[in-house]
Amino acid sequence: MGYSSVRGGMDAIEHAESLIAAQVTDSAHPVALPQVRDHVALLLDQVMGEGGVYDVDLGALAVKQAEGDPIEAGFLLRAYRTTLPRVGYSFPSSGRQMRILRRVSSAFRDIPGGQVLGRTRDYTQRLLDFALRDTPPQATAPSADLDALPAGAAPAEFPLVIDTLRTDGLMHEAPRRTSDEEPFDVTREPLRFPATRAARLQVLARGETGAMLSLAYAGMRGYGGAHGYIAELRYGDLPVLISHPITGGQVRIGWVPVTECYQVVGGDEGAKHEHDGSEDHVHEHDHSPDYVVSYGVVIGRNERKAISMSILDGSLKKATKSGAAIEDEEYVMYHIDSIEAMGFVEHLKLPHYVDFVASVQRTSKVRELVAAARRG
Amino acid sequence: MGVRALIEERGAAFEGYTFGFLDDMAKREIRRAILKGVAIPGHQVPFGSREMPIARGWGTGGLQITLACVGADDTIKVIDQGDDASVNAVNLRRLIAKTTGARETLTTGDATLIQTRHRIPEERMTAGQMLILQVPIPEPLRHVERSVAAARAMHAEADYARMWLALYEDVVRNGEVTAGAGYPVMVNHRFVMAPSPIPRWDIPKLDQAETLFLFGAGREKRIYAVPPYTDVKPLEFEDYPFSIEGFPGMSCRRCGATDSYLVTSPQADGSTLSVCSDASYCDDVLGGRKVVNQW
Q1: Do A66 and A105 fall within a single domain?
Q2: Total-model pTM
Q3: Counting one residue from A and one from B, how many pairs have CB atoms under 8 Å apart?
Q4: Which of residues 278-337 of A touch B (CB under 8 A)?
C-alpha cells in the first residue's frame, strides 16, 4: 500500500477510458447510428426526452456511447446541451395542431374525429419471435413512412376530447394567455417553491420514466393518487413555430413527435383541486362538481411516461392533501430526475475515508460514554 | 491577455467548447452568486446550476465555481479527501486544465485556486488563495426540516430553535453531539451553515482565516461563501464544548507527522496503517520543508 502517485491515478483513468472505448467500438457486428435510430427507437425517444434535446443523430450517438444505458445517455445529451446558446423560444403549440398518428380515449366509446389505434403493442401477444434471430438476407427500407401522411394531404385538425367536456359545460374554458410570455427555464434557473406551472411541467417532462411510473403506481395503489379517466391519449407531431427574425411573422421550422395524455378528474376529486391558473384549469365557479384536467406530455413515443406524468400532475394539483409523498411538490420534483439522482447515489463510490475516520471517532466516543455509564 | 490569446494558448485539445467549458452568461451568473454569497456570509444563494460533463454529486458545484473564477494565469490544485492522486481529483483537474490552460500543481502553497472535497489543507492558506469546497447537501437544516422552502424561511428568520433542539436531543441520547464530518457552524453570528463533510479537525480553520472559502452545491443549485476574517463558530453548548478528532500515539507511517489528520487502513496482519490524508503536507514533512500549519 502507500501513496499511489498522481501519475498512477491518471494511468488508471486512461486505462478505464480505453476499456470503455473498446466496449463501444469492438465487435464483429458493430452498431452503426442508423441502426440505433431504426431499431432502438423507443430507447432513443426516452433518452432525448429525459436529456432535453430533440436530435435523433445526437441521441443515437449518446445511446451507442453509453452502451444503451438510458440514464447515462440522457446525461451525455444534457452535458452537451448545456453548452449551447439559448437562441429563443417557440410559440406555444396546441394539441389541436398535432398531426395525429395515434389517438385513443378510454372515457368515450366514440370521439369526434374518431379513435386511431395506430402503432401500439397493447393488443399484441408478448411471445418471443424467434424468426427475428436470423439476420434478414437483405436490407429493407425502414417502414417509418407507414404512419406518414399521404403526400400533399393537409394534416387534419383533431379537436381535443376535453373540448367536448367544455362544450357540455362539464369543464370551464381555458384561461386566455398571451403567447409571448417567456417561460421559466428549469435548466437556467433554480427551482423555487411553490413552482410555476411552466417549471412543474418542464420538470415532469424531463423526469425519468421509471421513477415517474413508480410514483404514479404508488398513487394508484392508494398513496395519494386521484382516480381519473383518460379522456385522450395521443401521439403525433406538433409544429414548432417561431417568430421570423426579419418579418416577425410566425413560421414553422419543423415538427416534434410527442405523446400527450389528458386525464380528467371529476366529482369531489375535481372540486377539491386547487386553482393554479393552468391552461386547462377551472376558474372560481359556483357550480361544482366540475372536471379538471391532469396533463402529461413527453417527447417521442412514451405513453407510459405520459400517463404517469398526468397522474403526478393530478396529485400535485390536489388542494386537499392526504399527506402522501406524491402530493408533495418538492418530493416529486426533486426525485424524479434520475440523471441527478444517479450522480448522487453513485458518488458513494468515491472515497470517504476522511469522513469515515471522523465517524468512527464519534462512535468510539459514544461507546466509551455508554461503557462508563454502565460502570456507574 | 485577450480572449483570443487565451483560447490559442490552450490549443486544440478542447475544440468546440468555450474557455472554461461554461458559456459566458453562465460564468457571469455564477460570479454574481459568489459576490452575493461573499456579501452575506453563510447565506445560500440559489443559482442556475448548469449540467456539467461530470456527474451530479461528483463535484459539479465546486467545478462550476472553479471554472467561473479560473484564468489562464492561475495555478490550480484539486484534492479529494486531501489527496491529489484520487481518481476523481485527477479527472476534475485534467478537465479544468484542458479547458482553460491553467497550470496544475500538487503543492498547497503554489496554488491560487484549490478545489477540494471533504478537506481543508493542513498548510495555512493565505490571502491570495481561494479554497473551493464541493458540497453534497448545502442545507444544514435538512435533517430537521426536509422542505427546502420551509428551511429557507427558517434561515430568513434566524429560527434555529429546532437545530439547537436536535443537538440537545443528541446530547441527551448519546452523551454528546455525534456529528462527525460536516459539523454545523454559525457564520458571522447570523447563518447556520453546512461546512460540507470536512472533519471536525478542519472546522476551526474556517474561523478568521485569511483565505476566501467558496462552497458549491451543483445538484442542489446553491453557492455560499465564508469571506476572509469572518467569525465561524461550531454550534456547541457551554457544558458540552465542541472538540476535534484526535490521534493520540499515532503518526503517519509515511512521513512520521503527528500533527496532521490521519486516515487508517486495516492491514492483512491485523494491524492498522495510518497515513496523512493531506498528500501535499505529507510530501512537505517527508521532504523536510517547513510549512505553517497553524490556521
Answers
A1: no
A2: 0.87
A3: 156
A4: 330, 334
Cβ distance A354 to B53 less than 8 Å, yes or no, reads no
Considering the domain architecture, whether residues A179 and A277 belong to the same structural domain is answered as: yes
Residues A5-64 have pLDDT tens digits of 566 778 888 899 999 999 888 899 889 999 999 999 999 999 999 999 999 999 999 999
- Measured between beta carbons, the chain A residues lying within 8 angstroms of B266 are none
Q: Show the domain range for A216.
A: 95-118+154-336
Do residue A350 and residue B80 have CB atoms under 8 angstroms apart?
yes
Shortest CB distance from B149 goes to which of A193, A340, A369? A193
Domain-embedded: residue A76 = yes
Whether ipTM exceeds 0.90: no
For residue A229, being part of any structural domain is answered with yes
Question: In 3D, which of A145, A251, A261, A278 has the Cα closest to residue A213?
Answer: A261
Q: Express each pLDDT in A114-143 by its tens digit.
A: 888 988 999 989 999 888 888 766 777 666
Q: Identify whether A355 is part of a domain.
A: no
Q: Are residues A193 and A102 in the same domain?
A: yes
B278 lies in a domain? no
Q: Peptide bond before B140: cis, by omega within 30 degrees of 0?
A: no
Are A165 and A293 a contacting pair, CB within 8 Å?
no
Using a CB–CB cutoff of 8 Å, tell me whether A267 touches chain B. Answer: no
B289 in contact with chain A, both atoms CB, cutoff 8 A: no
Q: Which chain B residues are Cβ-neighbours of A81 within 8 angstroms?
A: 51
Domain membership flag for residue B156 = no
What residues make up the domain containing B114? 3-140+184-234
Mean pLDDT is lowest, of A165-169, A260-264, A341-345, B223-227, for A165-169
Q: Which helix (H) or strand (E) holds A7?
A: helix A6-25
Query: Which residues fall within 8 angstroms of residue A47, CB to CB, at 6 or more apart?
Result: A59, A62, A63, A70, A73, A74, A77
- Residue A78: its chain B contacts at CB < 8 A? 51
Length of chain A: 376
**B46 contacts A190? CB cut-off 8 A:** yes
> Residue A289: is the preceding peptide bond cis (ω within 30°)?
yes
Stretch A328-353: mean pLDDT, rounded? 94
CB contact at 8 A, A207 and A309: yes
